[in-house]
Amino acid sequence: MLIAATIAILVVMILGIIRGITGPTLYDRILAVNMFGTKTVLLISLLGFVMGRPDFLDIAIVYALINFISIIGVLHFSDSAVFRHDPHDSESTTKES
């Protein structure tokens, strides 16, 4: 049963990578990377349980925190890059009559 769960998590991780590569928008790709990180935490926890190594849970928690902080940073960077105001943009200047 645990082998089936491990295989299912690996399949979902592969699907997440595919969605991250072929995502139509930036936010779809970011969501796919976040999902991949979450499934990685699940995989590390499951492997720690299967191998009898409870210290893997600590590693999974640290990885989850790093994943969360990195996704917040990428979203902040992408949001500022998308909505950056360009003062030399021709549409932002008013035309004088």
Describe this protein's structure.
With 97 residues, this protein is mainly alpha-helical. Helix content is 75%, strand content 0%.
Largest sheet: none
| Total discrete domains | 1
Helix count from the secondary structure assignment = 3
Strand fraction: under 5%
Number of strands: 0
Average of per-residue pLDDT values: 85
Overall shape? elongated
How far apart lie the N and C ends? 75 Å
SSE pattern: HHH
* Unreliable stretches: none
**Main structural class:** mainly alpha
Overall helicity:
over 70%
- What Rg is obtained from the alpha carbons, in whole angstroms? 20 Å
What's the topology here?
Elements: H1 2-22, H2 26-50, H3 56-82
